[in-house]
Predict the 3D structure of the following.
Amino acid sequence: MPNVASAATLYIAGAFANFVAPSTAVFLASTTVSLATSLLLSAASNALTSNASTKQQDQSRDLSSPTTAPEVRYVYGHTRAAGTPTGTPVKGEYIYGNWILNSRWSDLTGLKLFLDKREVEFTGDPYDFSGVGAIATNGPFLDHTTFWISKGDETTPPDVFTSENGYHVSTSPGGWKTTDAWRGLTTIWVKIKAGDQEERAERWPSAPPFLEVEADWSRVYDPRDVAQDFSDETTWTHSSNLALCVLDSLKENPVRPYQQSNLDLVSFSTAADIADLDIALNAGGTEKEFVIAGTLVFSNGELEDQVMPLVSAGGGYLVRSGGQVGLQLPKYQTPSQTHTDFLGSSLTASDLLPTTDIVNNIRTVYTSIVRGYESAELKPYDIPGALSVDGNIAATMNLNLNFCPSATQAMRVRKIVGGLIRRQKSLQVILEPKALDLLPGSTITLDLPAPFNHFDGLWEVQSVHPGLDMYGTNDSVAMMVPVNLIKHSSTIYDWDPATDEEVVTEVTYVPASRSTTVPGTITTQVNYVNTGSVVQPIIKFLFDPSPSSGVVEYEWQYTTNTNYVTGGKIDKDTRDSVETGKVYGQTGASETLDYTFRVRTLSGLGASAWVYSSVVNVDVAFSSVVAAGESGLVRFTGTTPTSPSFSYSRVYENTVDDFSTATQLGSDNTSYGSNQAFDITKTHATGTDFYWIVPYTTTNLEGTVSGSYELTVT
């Protein structure tokens, strides 16, 4: 590994400290621009690796602690936000709880509710505070959970909270007041039934339950959209665009809101365009270049430090110029200037980084969507070629991208950071006055005369320090623009998904099951019982038992149209004698109808979701029919229905093609049993008419009608 302490530094024509001695120059502080959070500087590395960017699951745990003074938080992007309980009063076996989710209005598109990491499926309108709310439909929440959610526009709690069972503060100390609305904040109100004592530990492992809501969250201002007003939130829209969310965190923060005059909206617009670029994925499709997802909790600390986790999710940095704050995102920029000379007689160059800045390996943390928006880690990343240069001595940097919800985005940021942080050559030089237009992050080309031409090439501006030279030529005052430069390369930003993406195996997070699991797939059999006078079809349905512990029984229902009829309950220990291990039930059926069955598990934790069978057909129909008109008769041949319940058939005729008004021709045909070849004739006068042949069951139910047949009798 190189000995940085002894690294040669090139001083040309007398290097000067801080560019110019204080006695010879006056720096213009009002116009100074600097890169305070450059990824190259130790300060930047500290920002990326600091504990300020708390892991999502740790932050969620902290926010879930009950309090009457919840922390101010803004939720950005599409993510899962933990609720802070502000009150969970109890009346009887019910909890009437309120949780704060976002300290502002929210969009809430794609709403999902999770209690103790288990999704609550629901029906109904959660936004109607005067109605019955959203009602849980899955176990263990069925019959135990109802909720309402406010986007920030409600003026009172749900009516249920201030009226149901007299649960109003006037009659129940600790009850909810009609003024308890948290107006302007996104809140959720949940009515929870505790249930039987023996069930509570499983149904409600924590009290109050750990609550999360997944949705689209804060609406943010987009300066690129002329329809949006900087000061009118009603014109803004939800976005996960990193640049727009960073802009919002500065302009809307509760610590020290930035005024429009303090924000470089042009730079944020440029950054937003970069963030919106479509990036190809190795598996096909695209994703946006830089998005964020997560909850930003504000404190009384330095604001720009607090928003750095958002900025870092895209490997960007904040810049300050002329009293305005802007945003730079890592994307190659065409050089804005070419400099063919420098001022003064001195420049300072260095070929090596300080020892403290040497990094050759990066460990990257991001937020995994498939793991329930909890932190995940990429494989350690060796910066290409760096380890061998450093004498095979590993130097690791922790890159915390906890607002980054994409593994591939984290990979892109990691590669860029690795490329930027390995740049070795730096240059301090005074450029001509046109350099005043340079900003940190912009690039320039040097094309210097000999003997300085070995500095030629692409450089990135790190900082610009305009000043006045009090001892200019002929005793005049001259403008001087000292700059810090670092050698740059466009290849840092190259990305090939086929070679640069790593394979990430993200196992979907499945919480420990405290709910009732569904039974297995339903299969069906149609059997027949001969009572002597009639043959009755019987449908048997079978399924594997639920793996849930504490199963009490199974509930089953059936339908022959769209409305399900309760069939009854099946004991958990009921097993079929032939289909070993299968739970079964059966019911008499009516020929000519289609049946569908559904079954669910019942346990101490409540009911599971339903499992549905395929359609079961027990209709009685001819297997085949051939009809013909002959001399003085009509003839029908074919095969009778295979159903044992088939009993006889009838032939119908009509002068028009309308079975509803047809009349029977001749007597019932009783000579054939089920699944037999038949030959049936009926005498008829000459002419052309319409005919039908119909099977009937032993219970005299009409089967499937065959016909019409237009036949001519000669």
